[in-house]
């Protein structure tokens, strides 16, 4: 295990807005728009990671000073003999002009205790244990491509960018090799540009300094017969910085055999092996691929924009259909206007045709289009059946008063007709009314 403060760890990360492509490498003697993002580490002032985002390298050297008295430190930018410094806390997220240069500086992010978590930069705590900063330099100038001699035997970019990978057959300047003996003892051979070569034995849970910034190697456990295993777990949207739309869906599979239960999550597009007896069981989850009797070729894809903006107003795909017999046909489909093949009217009415509709598009690649193919034989019979059901419901509820009655008297249940009951009158019994004097009592002594 190691602490994520080594600059070499970031070469495989796509976080913090760094891109892997270089746009338009300009000529060495021609001024052009330059944009470069650089990582600088307080504990490794001579190391920085740079990624050209536009034009070429600016040739800047970035150094982060150690924070003092609760501050976030200062960023020092050097262009040869020209040097400027900026306070991180005061200029975080702001564009500042670098004096006596045609470039501007923006401090994008700051991490007081830099680590790599889930492939992205993060801070383990608020204490300045391992400060790091990401800056972006923009401006117009001549790309810097010169190299300087490397005392360790290889040429590295003078701009402080990522080190050049060694040629095939040669070892990297910093590398570590582990050896496992038959008795389980672990030994190592370490090569560091800072400390040179070293070798020896490694003990379990005893850190080994590597000399690469403050990275340390620790062996947690020795397994003589190990195999690679990948486990997937569901993640809630509020527990990750990645949008839930970027995560695949999955299913949970539970297998029971001889009283033993195995449970495994299988994400879409993956094949997962579950240990069973006598052999392992492979489970896959995803879209089922069904071959089509026709082939599609995208001839042209058009995107219409709304007037005065870049928002799309519609998409149109021009397709070529090729059958197994060699027959071809061209057609176009766009929103609410599908394209059918074959186009004979009787095939369309019977559903014996392929109905191709525009489904989606890729804004980053206009040479790609997504269409939906529908084949529904007998759709006319389903529509006729639905129409008959609607007509029947209408006749049952709305045409009932207009039905012709059957001749003759209606059939009624037989039985004696009820007779009228006479009212029985009862005489009222008069109740004498007492006078007020009768209710009054006389006081007695």
Give structural notes.
- The protein folds into 4 domains: 7-157, no CATH class; 175-217, no CATH class; 249-285, no CATH class; 294-374, no CATH class.
- The chain starts with 31 loop residues before the first strand and ends in a 6-residue tail after the last helix.
- By secondary structure, the chain is mainly beta.
- It is built from 4 helices and 27 strands.
- The strands form 10 sheets. The protein has a 5-stranded antiparallel β-sheet with strand order 2-1-10-7-6, with no helix packed on it. Strands 3-4-5 form a 3-stranded antiparallel β-sheet. The protein has a 3-stranded antiparallel β-sheet with strand order 13-14-15, with no helix packed on it.
- Strand 8 and strand 9 form a beta hairpin.
Main sheet strand line-up: 2-1-10-7-6
Helicity range: under 10%
Report the major sheet: 5 strands, antiparallel
SS element count, helices: 4
Query: What count of structural domains?
Result: 4
Beta fraction: 35-45%
- Gross morphology is extended
Distance linking N and C termini: 112 Å
Structural class: mainly beta
Low-confidence stretches: 1-27, 146-162, 422-428, 434-445
Task: Give average pLDDT, whole number.
Answer: 77
SSE arrangement:
Blueprint lengths: L31 E10 L2 E11 L6 E4 L9 E6 L2 E6 H4 L3 E3 L5 E9 L2 E4 L2 E4 L8 E10 L5 E2 L7 E2 L17 E6 L5 E7 L3 E7 L5 E2 L6 E2 L32 E8 L2 E8 L2 E5 L6 E5 L8 E12 L6 E12 L4 E7 L4 E3 L3 H6 L3 E8 L7 E6 L4 H20 L37 H4 L6
Antiparallel strand pairs: 1-2, 1-10, 3-4, 4-5, 6-7, 7-10, 8-9, 11-12, 13-14, 14-15, 16-17, 18-19, 20-21, 22-23, 23-24, 25-26, 26-27
């Amino acid at each position: 295990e190691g602490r994520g403060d080594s600059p070499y760890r970031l070469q495989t990360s796509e976080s913090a807005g760094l891109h892997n492509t270089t746009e338009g490498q300009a000529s060495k003697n021609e001024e052009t728009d330059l944009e470069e993002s650089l990582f600088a580490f307080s504990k490794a002032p001579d190391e920085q990671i740079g990624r050209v985002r536009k034009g070429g390298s600016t040739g800047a050297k970035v150094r982060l000073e150690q924070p003092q008295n609760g501050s976030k430190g200062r960023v020092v930018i050097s262009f040869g003999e020209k040097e400027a410094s900026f306070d991180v806390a005061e200029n975080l997220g702001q564009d500042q002009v670098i004096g006596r240069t045609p470039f501007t500086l923006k401090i994008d992010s700051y991490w007081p205790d830099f680590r790599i978590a889930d492939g992205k930069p993060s801070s383990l705590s608020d204490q300045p244990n391992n400060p790091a900063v990401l800056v972006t330099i923009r401006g117009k100038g001549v790309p810097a491509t010169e190299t300087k001699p490397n005392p360790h035997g290889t040429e590295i970019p003078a701009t402080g960018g990522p080190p050049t990978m060694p040629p095939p057959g040669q070892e990297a300047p910093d590398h570590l090799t582990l050896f496992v003996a038959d008795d389980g003892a672990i030994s190592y051979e370490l090569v560091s540009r800072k400390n040179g070569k070293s070798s020896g034995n490694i003990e379990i849970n005893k850190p080994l300094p590597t000399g690469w910034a403050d990275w340390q190697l620790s062996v947690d456990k020795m397994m003589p017969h190990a195999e690679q295993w990948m486990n997937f777990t569901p993640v809630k949207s509020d527990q990750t910085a990645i949008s839930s739309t970027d995560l695949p869906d999955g299913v949970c599979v539970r297998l029971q055999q001889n009283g033993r239960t195995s449970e495994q999550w299988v994400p879409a597009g993956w094949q997962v092996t579950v240990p069973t007896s006598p052999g392992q069981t492979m489970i896959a989850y995803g879209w089922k691929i069904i071959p089509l009797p026709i082939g599609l070729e995208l001839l042209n894809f058009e995107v219409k924009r709304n007037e005065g903006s870049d928002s799309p107003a519609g998409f149109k795909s021009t397709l070529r259909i090729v059958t197994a017999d060699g027959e071809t046909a061209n057609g176009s489909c766009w929103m609410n206007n599908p394209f059918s093949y074959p186009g004979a009217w009787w095939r369309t009415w019977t559903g014996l045709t392929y109905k191709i509709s525009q489904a989606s598009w890729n804004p980053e690649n206009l040479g790609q289009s997504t269409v939906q193919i529908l084949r529904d034989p007998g759709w006319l019979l389903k529509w006729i059946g639905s129409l008959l059901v609607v007509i029947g419901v209408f006749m049952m509820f709305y045409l009932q008063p207009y039905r012709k009655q059957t001749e003759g008297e209606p059939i009624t249940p037989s039985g004696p007709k009820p007779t009228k009951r006479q009212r029985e009158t009862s005489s009222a019994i008069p109740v004498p009314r007492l006078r007020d004097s009768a209710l009054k009592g006389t006081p007695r002594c």
